[in-house]
DNA sequence: CAGTGAGCGAGCTTCCGCTTGACTT
C-alpha cells in the first residue's frame, strides 16, 4: 500500500506527476469539483445565515468512495489542487467529503508541472487557506442566488425555461447593445485619394493623401490641378523600428487566434486543445497566465539556438494584464519545444503548430525594421502624397510567427524604390474613391471572449460554455448574413484624362457573427431596466474586489452576501409584483385601409405582428408570425402588412381548401393535411397560383402514398411510414422506431399507441436525469 | 397536422466554475 496519496484536479496531470514521484506515491484526480450546492431550491439556507448545502455530485460518488478508501490507508494525503480560489475550495471539499484527518493532510501547490517544481512543493506544505475557501463560497453562493432568483422572474414575465446570470446576461447585453449601435449607425461618406507614381528611373510605387476629403468636387479639383504635371520629393525620412513578439497563448488569446487564423469556433478550439493536452503535447489549455516555467524557458532557448542560431534568441518573461487573472497554470505551450510537428488529425496538427510557433516566437529576438516615409508635393494643391515603405533588416521572431489582428489587414508596406529630395516624380494613375464610415463590428465568438476577459467576466473554463448557453437559450444566433449592394463614385486621372465612374460593392455581409434575437433583446431590456446593478459591466469587478477582501481576511463572506442579498431580493420581489409582462411591443403604425393599429411583439409562439387591438369585442385582431429572417426590432409597417396577406386561399379541391403560407420551415402550399414545401421550386407564396399549387400537392400525395403503409385517422393522426432506415411511426413531428416483434404491415392503432407510449424518453431528458 | 396569441395551475425550467468521458443519429 502506497504511503502517500496525492490528489490533483486533472487525470492527465496525475499521470505525469505519478511518474515524477515513484512508488511511494499514488496520484489521483478529483476531476474538478466533487461537491456543489444542492440543485433543488437555492441550495443555500438563506434564513440560516446563508449556510450552503453541499451535495456530492452523483457522477462522483464512486470516485469519492475510492478516494476515501485510499486516504484511509495512506500515511499522508497531499492536496495538490490548483493554486487559485477554485482549487483551494476543491481541496477543502475533498478534506470535508473524505473526512481527512488534519494531522495526516497537507496542502501543496505548484503552477507548473515539472519534476523540480513538484518536489519543491512537497518540501513546502501548508494548510488549507480558509479565507480563500470562503472567497470561493461567496462567489459560488452569489452566482447561485443571482441565477436562481433572476431566472424565475423571466419565466413569469417573459417566457418559461429562460435563464439569467452574472456572466451570461452581460454577454447578451454586449451583443444587444452592439446591434443597436449598428442599427442606429448612419454611414458618412468621404473620399480617399491614392495613386501609383514613378521615380526618374521609372520604378513604380504607391502613395496616398492621408486626409479624408469631404466631396467629389474637392477630389475633382485636385485631379484637375495636377493633370499633366509632375510631383517632387519634398521630404524623405528613414527611421529604424522594431517589432516585438506577442506573449505565449492563454485560453482567450488561443481562442481568438485560432478563430482568425484557422476559423475554429471557440468550443472547437477547446476540444482540439483538450486532445493535445491529453496526448501530452501541450500544457494545460485553460489558463489566464502568460508565464513560462524555468524548464520551458530553457527548452525554448535550446530549440531556438539550435534551429536558428544564437542571435535569434531573447529570453522574455511576460506579465499578465487581464483583470482578475488567477494564474494557477503556465501559459499554453508545447511540452517539448523541439517537437515542431505532431502526428494527429489535421485540426490537431494545425492548432499545435500555432501553439508551438507562438510560444517559440515569444522567446525570440525583436525584428528590426526600417521605415521609410516619402512626401510628394505639387504646388497646385494643398495636400501632399505620402508613400510608406518597410524593410526588414533582421527578421527575428517574424521568422516563425506573425500575429493577426481583428482589423482589416492594412495594405502591406513593401519596399520603396530609392529616391532623393527634389527628385521629379510622375504619376501613373491617381484615383479618388468614395468611401463610407463603417459601423462598429459585430462580435464573433472570439471577440466576445476577448471583451469578457477584458471586463474580468467569466473564466478560461467558462468562455466556451457561456457562448453556447446564450445560443441555447435563444438569446443569440451565430449567422451568416448577405450584404447589400451599394454604389460609389470613382474619379481616375490617367494621362491627361479625368474619368468619372460609378461602381458597386457589396457591404455589410457577415459570416459567423453573433446577432441578438428578439427574445434576447426583450430579456436584455427587461433585465437592464429592473436589475441595472447586476447587468452593470462593472458588477463582476465590484464583487471580485469583495472576494479579494474576503480572501485577505478583511471581511466575512456571509456578511458580504447578506449585504448584497437584502436589496437584491427586494428588487426581485418588487419586479415580480409591479412590472408588466415584457413583450418587446413595438408600434409600427396604422393599416392605411382600416386605420387599425399594427404592432410587433413576442407572443406565446414567438415573434409576431398583430393588426387591431386585443380588447375589441366584435372585431377580432389578426395575427401573423414573423419569418425567421425578420425581427421585431427592424420590421417595417409594409413588411407587417404583407404578412397579414398570408395564408392565401387559392381555391378548393374535393371540398378542402388549397392555401399558400409561410411556416417555420419556409413557404408551403397546403391541402387538408398535406403540406408541400415551395423551397425546391423557388415559388413565392404570394404569387403561386391554384394550378401550380395543385400540381405540387398531387406530387406530394403521390410521394406520401409510396411511403405510407397505413394511416389511422382520429386524434392524433398516426401514420406508419417507410423511411430511409426502415419503417417507422409518425405522429405530428415526432417519429418512433418500430420495435422488434411488430410487423409494420399488420400494426393496428392500439399497437401504435402502445409503441408510442412505451418509447424511451428523448435523449436530452435521460441525459439530465443522470 | 394547421391555426394559435389570455390566464389559471401542476410541475418542469435556472446559476458559475472545476473537470472528463459516454452517449446515438
Structural description of this entry:
By secondary structure, this protein is an alpha+beta fold. Among the domains are: 4-128, Rossmann fold; 130-187 and 441-475 and 517-581, Topoisomerase I, domain 2, CATH 1.10.460; 189-239 and 374-402 and 414-437 and 487-510, Topoisomerase I, domain 3 (Distorted Sandwich), CATH 2.70.20; 251-365, Orthogonal Bundle (Topoisomerase I, domain 4). Helix content is 35%, strand content 25%. The protein contains 21 helices and 30 strands. Strands 9, 10, 11, 12, 13, 14, 16 and 17 form an 8-stranded antiparallel sheet that branches. A 4-stranded parallel sheet has the order 2-1-7-8, sandwiched between helices. A hairpin with a 5-residue loop joins β4 and β5 (51-52). α5 runs antiparallel to α16. It is globular, with a radius of gyration of 33 Å. Residues 761-770 have low confidence and may be disordered. The structure holds one DNA strand of 25 nucleotides. It catalyses: ATP-independent breakage of single-stranded DNA, followed by passage and rejoining.
Provide the low-confidence segments as ranges.
761-770
What is the name of the CATH superfamily of the domain at 130-187 and 441-475 and 517-581? Topoisomerase I, domain 2
Beta content: 15-25%
Secondary-structure arrangement, i.e. CATH architecture of the domain at 130-187 and 441-475 and 517-581: Orthogonal Bundle
- Give the CATH topology of the domain at 130-187 and 441-475 and 517-581: Topoisomerase I, domain 2
Estimate the global geometry from the Cα principal axes. Answer: globular
The beta-strand count equals 30
Query: How can the largest sheet be summarized?
Result: 8 strands, antiparallel
- The number of helical runs is 21
Oligomeric description of these chains:
single chain
Q: Which structural class should the secondary elements be placed in?
A: alpha+beta
According to CATH, what is the class of the domain at 130-187 and 441-475 and 517-581? Mainly Alpha
Q: Measured on Cα atoms, how large is the radius of gyration?
A: 33 Å
Q: Report the mean per-residue pLDDT as an integer.
A: 90
Question: End-to-end span in angstroms?
Answer: 34 Å
What proportion of the residues is helical, as a percent range?
25-40%
Amino acid at each position: 500500500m502506497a504511503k502517500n496519496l496525492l490528489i490533483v484536479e486533472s487525470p492527465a496531470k496525475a499521470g505525469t506527476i505519478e511518474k515524477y514521484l515513484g512508488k511511494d506515491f499514488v496520484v489521483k484526480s478529483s476531476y474538478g469539483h466533487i461537491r456543489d450546492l444542492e440543485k433543488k431550491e437555492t441550495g443555500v439556507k438563506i434564513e440560516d445565515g446563508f449556510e450552503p448545502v453541499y451535495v456530492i455530485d452523483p457522477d462522483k460518488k464512486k470516485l469519492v468512495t475510492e478516494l476515501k478508501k485510499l486516504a484511509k490507508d495512506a500515511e499522508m494525503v497531499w492536496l495538490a489542487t490548483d493554486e487559485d480560489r477554485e482549487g483551494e475550495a476543491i481541496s477543502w471539499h475533498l478534506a470535508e467529503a473524505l473526512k481527512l484527518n488534519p494531522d495526516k493532510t497537507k496542502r501543496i501547490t505548484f503552477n507548473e508541472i515539472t519534476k523540480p517544481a513538484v518536489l519543491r512543493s512537497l518540501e513546502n506544505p501548508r494548510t488549507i487557506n480558509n479565507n480563500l475557501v470562503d472567497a470561493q463560497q461567496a462567489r459560488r453562493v452569489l452566482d447561485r442566488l443571482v441565477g436562481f432568483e433572476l431566472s424565475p422572474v423571466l419565466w413569469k414575465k417573459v417566457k418559461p425555461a429562460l435563464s439569467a446570470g452574472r456572466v451570461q446576461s452581460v454577454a447578451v447585453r454586449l451583443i444587444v447593445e452592439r446591434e443597436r449601435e449598428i442599427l442606429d449607425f448612419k454611414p458618412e461618406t468621404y473620399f480617399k485619394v491614392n495613386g501609383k507614381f514613378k521615380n526618374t528611373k521609372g520604378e513604380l510605387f504607391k502613395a496616398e493623401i492621408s486626409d479624408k476629403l469631404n466631396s467629389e468636387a474637392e477630389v475633382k479639383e485636385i485631379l484637375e490641378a495636377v493633370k499633366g504635371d509632375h510631383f517632387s520629393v519634398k521630404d524623405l525620412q528613414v527611421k529604424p523600428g522594431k517589432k516585438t513578439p506577442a506573449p505565449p497563448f492563454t485560453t482567450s488569446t488561443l481562442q481568438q487566434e485560432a478563430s482568425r487564423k484557422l476559423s475554429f469556433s471557440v468550443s472547437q478550439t477547446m476540444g482540439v486543445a483538450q486532445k493535445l493536452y491529453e496526448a501530452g503535447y501541450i500544457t494545460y489549455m485553460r489558463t489566464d497566465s502568460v508565464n513560462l516555467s524555468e524548464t520551458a524557458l530553457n527548452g525554448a532557448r535550446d530549440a531556438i539556438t539550435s534551429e536558428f542560431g544564437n542571435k535569434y534568441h531573447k529570453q522574455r518573461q511576460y506579465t499578465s494584464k487581464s483583470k482578475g487573472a488567477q494564474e494557477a497554470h503556465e501559459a499554453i505551450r508545447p511540452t517539448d519545444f523541439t517537437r515542431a510537428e505532431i502526428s494527429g488529425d489535421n485540426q490537431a496538427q494545425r492548432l499545435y503548430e500555432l501553439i508551438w510557433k507562438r510560444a517559440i516566437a515569444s522567446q525570440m529576438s525583436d525584428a528590426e525594421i526600417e521605415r521609410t516615409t516619402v512626401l510628394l508635393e505639387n504646388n497646385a494643391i494643398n495636400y501632399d502624397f505620402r508613400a510608406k515603405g518597410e524593410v526588414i533588416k533582421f527578421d527575428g521572431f517574424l521568422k516563425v510567427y506573425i500575429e493577426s489582428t481583428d482589423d482589416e489587414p492594412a495594405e502591406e508596406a513593401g519596399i520603396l524604390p530609392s529616391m532623393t529630395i527634389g527628385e521629379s516624380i510622375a504619376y501613373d494613375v491617381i484615383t479618388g474613391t468614395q468611401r463610407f464610415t463603417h459601423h462598429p463590428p459585430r462580435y464573433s465568438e472570439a471577440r466576445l471572449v476577448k471583451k469578457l476577459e477584458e471586463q474580468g467576466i467569466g473564466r478560461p473554463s467558462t468562455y466556451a460554455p457561456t457562448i453556447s448557453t446564450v445560443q441555447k437559450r435563444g438569446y443569440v444566433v451565430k449567422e451568416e448574413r448577405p450584404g447589400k449592394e451599394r454604389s460609389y463614385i470613382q474619379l481616375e486621372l490617367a494621362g491627361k484624362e479625368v474619368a468619372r465612374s460609378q461602381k458597386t460593392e457589396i457591404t455589410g455581409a457577415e459570416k459567423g457573427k453573433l446577432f441578438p434575437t428578439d427574445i434576447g433583446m426583450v430579456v436584455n431590456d427587461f433585465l437592464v431596466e429592473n436589475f441595472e446593478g447586476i447587468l452593470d459591466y462593472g458588477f463582476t469587478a465590484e464583487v471580485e474586489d469583495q472576494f479579494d477582501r474576503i480572501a485577505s481576511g478583511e471581511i466575512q463572506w456571509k456578511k458580504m452576501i447578506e449585504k448584497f442579498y437584502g436589496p437584491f431580493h427586494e428588487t426581485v420581489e418588487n419586479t415580480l409584483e409591479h412590472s408588466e409582462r415584457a413583450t418587446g411591443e413595438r408600434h409600427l403604425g396604422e393599416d392605411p385601409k382600416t386605420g387599425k393599429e399594427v404592432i410587433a411583439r413576442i407572443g406565446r409562439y414567438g415573434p409576431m405582428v398583430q393588426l387591431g387591438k386585443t380588447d375589441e369585442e366584435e372585431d377580432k385582431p389578426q395575427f401573423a408570425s414573423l419569418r425567421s429572417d425578420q425581427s421585431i426590432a427592424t420590421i417595417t409597417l409594409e413588411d407587417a402588412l404583407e404578412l397579414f396577406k398570408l395564408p392565401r386561399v387559392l381555391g378548393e379541391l374535393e371540398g378542402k381548401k388549397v392555401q399558400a403560407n409561410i411556416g417555420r420551415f419556409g413557404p408551403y402550399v397546403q391541402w387538408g393535411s398535406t403540406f408541400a414545401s415551395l423551397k425546391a421550386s423557388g415559388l413565392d407564396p404570394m404569387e403561386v397560383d391554384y394550378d401550380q399549387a395543385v400540381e405540387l400537392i398531387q406530387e406530394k400525395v403521390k410521394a406520401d402514398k409510396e411511403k405510407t403503409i397505413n394511416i389511422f385517422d382520429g386524434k392524433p393522426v398516426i401514420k406508419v411510414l417507410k423511411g430511409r432506415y426502415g419503417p417507422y411511426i409518425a405522429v405530428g413531428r415526432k417519429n418512433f422506431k418500430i420495435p422488434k416483434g411488430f410487423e409494420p404491415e399488420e400494426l393496428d392503432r392500439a399497437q401504435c399507441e402502445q409503441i408510442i407510449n412505451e418509447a424511451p424518453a428523448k435523449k436530452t431528458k435521460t441525459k439530465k436525469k443522470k
